[in-house]
Amino acid sequence: MGFDQNQNTRTYKFDRLVKGEPAVLISVTVDMGLFLRHHVGVQEGPSLCARKIASDLAHIAEVAHELTNDDLLTFATARADAEARKAARRRPVPRPRA
Asked: What is the pTM of this model?
């Protein structure tokens, strides 16, 4: 649904659609400084919000959620670990000397 920004806080908006029920607006706020702090691109925001909403399904009655420092730290750490594993696979295997 897009986003609104008020100073350094961005609020992403999503519709929860359930067949036969009216749409429910769900919002996820995030301090934009967290993207910079954890070297996460702003374009990752919507997918991170979708993950946050999915992880909060037990509390879906709540329509307001927040991406926290821990959420972005977890994402950045997982991404760095995946990149390290990928780099390790690219390293040449040492050959025994004759």
From this structure: 0.74
